[in-house]
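Q: Could you fold this chain for me?
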Amino acid sequence: MLTAKTRWAVYALVGLFLALGSWSLSSAVGASPDDDFHLASIWCGAGDKPGLCESTGEVGHRLVLPGLVQSGCYVFEPGMSAECQEANQIFSQTSLIDSTRGSFTSNYPPVYYAIMSSLASTDIPSSVIAIRLMNSLFFMGSLVALMVIAPRQLRKTYFWMWALTIVPLGIFLISSTNPSSWAITGVPTAWMALFLFLTLQGKRSIAAGVLFFIEVFLVSGARGDAAIYTIIGSVLIGFLTWKKTRTFFLKLILPLVAALISLYFYASSLQSTVAGSGMSVADGGTPRTGLGVLAINLVQLPELWVGAFGYWPLGWLDTEMPALVWVTTFGIFAAVVFLLVRGIDKRQGFSLLVLAAILYVLPLYVLQKSLNHVGEQVQPRYLLPLIVGFAAIASLKFAQTKVVLSSLQSWVILAGIALANALALYVNTKRYVSGLNNGTGVSLDSNIGWWWNLPVSPMTMWFVGSLAFAIALGAGFRWLQLQSNRVQIEKSKVS
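A: Sure. Below is the predicted structure, expressed as structure tokens.
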């Protein structure tokens, strides 16, 4: 018979899977940023496959299924549903077409595309759902691994670092086909696994080291910027846990080896050119000066941080979130972090200051190199792994202090996050099912222009997904409460 603690853990995991699954179904094929590029890269990720990806003999070109590059017939038109996919019959076309949209010249590291290509098939919608669910399972597996390895007092850290940052951009991308999914999952997981490796002993330390290495390899093989983020995290965690002991110095060999792997993936992809030349230069308009661009970006850059909480639209930046979403999520994040930094030790405080500076200076530098303003080229999703990492380091306070949030405060916060998720999921689903702001009514089932070939209706999916996410938060928190009660009982017995 399951114990109460085990039951709550099961409720949390089932709820999380259903919530991520609902987000996976909430948008059409091609909905995540640059999906035409990434889908073609996945289908060609393991080399030439007859009928899926074939060589043209020309550098930077591949023959791919039309549905991979034409699925976004609705992008930049938020009032339009994704019914154009069916109307144009793009997924029934099997004659390959020539395309340059893909990582065909090592634009990105190859690991993500190579692994996901095992799910590619001529049935593009089914493959896309499978890839999204696989990415969702990677997130869940990473979270569970941290929870199993960590001591009880640190499990609050991992719960709150995700609860405070996952809605809406995080959960949208984690359950997408975009390689940013792995970056958002793996970067903060690697940071916290390294923290466990450097602070624990015995089998737990070894398990944490293995998890750290796996996460670094996967995320560095997904995005070049994520490779650099793992190195940044290794330096910060090393500073946080620094000890002048022989054992500690020997343990540092692991993050040093991981850093070399990260640098290899970064240097071997074209993303490394961003550091030297910036991103695409803005075209047209009034000529820009370096000083003028800098002056504007200095005061506008925090928009990128708030953008990760829903201030920026989802998808191809064409699915605008209601103000209640980003006001709630960012307000909760700011308030809780404000409480967490009170009375923190000097190392933790310095680490947070350094990370805040990186979150400011890094995008500012990239924008400045190409004379782009905030809102051009650099997107919040590029910074989200660092934002989650910031929340992770701040949330270490939960393991150091008996009470940071009262039970009532925690439940109010979780209710707010659940409400924001439900609203974000509704809007995101409606955008693809029937389009936004076009008088199609409140019910997601009232005017269905697009939907998957599934027996579940959009409205049912939204209800289940919203409820499941709320259950995941509530059950996860209740599980932590039961653990805390057990620790207190054990301490009282000892005393």
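A (continued): Residues 412 and 418 are 10 Å apart (CA to CA).
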